[in-house]
Structures are given as structure tokens and as C-alpha cells.
């Protein structure tokens, strides 16, 4: 994974420390967390030592176990949020192997339940999440460019530029770049 909000090593190191801290707060062993999340013990160990950065799918599984959105977790390892978030200060996170770039346009902030995320999927990119990070999470997905296939509650949706899908996320979801060009979308996320 690569982060464009500063040296990648610093964000990955902070993320590793926060993941280890969350596990300790819950009093779980690596084995218990592996059982709860479906992420292997060895991957968890390497992620907590900053030897590797988790994939988007692995991070989503961990967020589900800890009851956090991905933005909230990533926000916990970055500098404190400001009321005004300039374009050049919006944290980016990339899962290059999956063809996914995520920019936190309006990161989580204490006292606020919503956030805005820009997503970009390369042609052919296909990301599946086996569970929501927070059950009942409200999402409004507005496609800005390209075509996006989204499956939620086993119902497939094909969205074109300008289309908006509103949903509460209770189970698995899947995001696919359905066209020959990059899909770019804005996701409004509201905690229940």
C-alpha cells in the first residue's frame, strides 16, 4: 500500500502501532483476532510490526471487528482532523494490486457522524468486502465518471456517471469498475 500524505513508512508505522493497540485494548491474542477477522495470524503479526501494510479487504475485515470505518481507523493514525481540509491535505491511500485509490475528502472528525471519500477503480478492478466495518452503515455513492458495478445485499446495480446509489450496509458488498475507463465516485458515509 502507498500513502501520499507523507512518507509511506510513517503512516504504515502508525497504522501498525494502532492495530496492535486496538488488539491489546480488546485483550485478544493474535490467534483470537485471526479467528474473529478471517485474516491470518502471520499477516496480522507482520502488519502490527509494519513489515507489511494490509490490503483494502484485510483492513475492512479488521475495521469490522473493531467497529470502525476504514476512514476512521486511518484518521486515527494521521494528524488530528481540521474543520477545513485543503485538497493537498486530504489523505490518499492506495491498494495498487487491487487498482484502488481512496482519498479522504472529509475525514472523520470528533462529534461528526459523516465523512466523504473519493474512490477510483482502475479498469477491471474488483473489490469485495465480506462485511461492513459497522453494521447498518449508511452510504450514498455518487458516480462522478466511468461506470461502476455495485452489489449490496445480493442485489447488483450498474451505475453510470451522475447516478447515485443509497444504501444501508448490512452484509457483503462488491465494487467493480464496469467500463473500459477508470471509475471515479464520491461516497458519503454516515455512522448509524
TrEMBL record:
- Pfam families the UniProt entry points to: HTH_3
Example of a GO cellular component annotation carried by this entry: cytosol
Q: Which InterPro entries match?
A: Cro/C1-type_HTH, Lambda_DNA-bd_dom_sf, RmlC-like_jellyroll, RmlC_Cupin_sf, TransReg_Diox_bact_type
Q: Which UniProt keywords apply?
A: DNA-binding
Q: Where in this chain does the record put each HTH cro/C1-type domain?
A: 19-73
**Annotated GO MF terms:** DNA binding; DNA-binding transcription factor activity
Q: Which domain of life is it from?
A: Bacteria
Protein name from the UniProt record:
Helix-turn-helix domain-containing protein
Taxonomic lineage of this organism? Answer: Bacteria, Bacillati, Actinomycetota, Actinomycetes, Kitasatosporales
Amino acid at each position: 500500500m502507498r500513502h501520499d500524505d507523507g512518507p509511506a513508512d510513517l503512516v504504515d508505522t502508525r497504522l501498525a502501532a494502532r492495530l496492535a493497540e486496538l488488539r491489546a485494548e480488546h485483550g485478544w491474542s493474535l490467534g483470537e483476532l485471526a479467528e474473529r477477522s478471517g485474516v491470518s495470524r502471520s499477516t496480522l503479526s507482520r502488519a502490527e510490526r509494519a513489515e507489511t501494510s494490509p490490503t483494502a479487504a484485510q483492513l475492512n475485515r479488521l475495521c469490522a471487528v473493531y467497529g470502525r470505518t476504514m476512514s476512521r481507523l486511518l484518521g486515527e493514525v494521521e494528524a488530528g482532523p481540521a474543520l477545513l481540509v485543503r485538497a493537498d491535505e486530504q489523505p490518499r491511500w492506495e491498494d495498487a494490486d487491487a487498482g484502488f485509490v481512496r482519498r479522504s475528502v472529509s475525514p472523520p472528525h470528533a462529534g461528526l457522524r459523516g465523512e466523504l471519500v473519493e474512490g477510483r477503480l482502475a479498469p477491471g478492478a474488483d473489490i469485495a468486502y465480506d462485511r461492513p466495518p459497522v453494521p447498518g452503515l449508511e452510504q450514498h455513492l455518487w458516480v462522478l465518471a466511468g461506470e461502476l458495478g455495485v452489489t449490496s445485499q445480493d442485489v447488483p446495480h450498474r451505475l453510470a456517471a451522475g447516478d447515485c446509489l443509497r444504501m444501508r450496509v448490512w452484509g457483503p458488498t462488491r465494487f467493480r469498475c464496469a467500463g473500459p475507463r477508470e471509475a471515479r465516485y464520491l461516497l458519503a458515509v454516515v455512522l448509524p
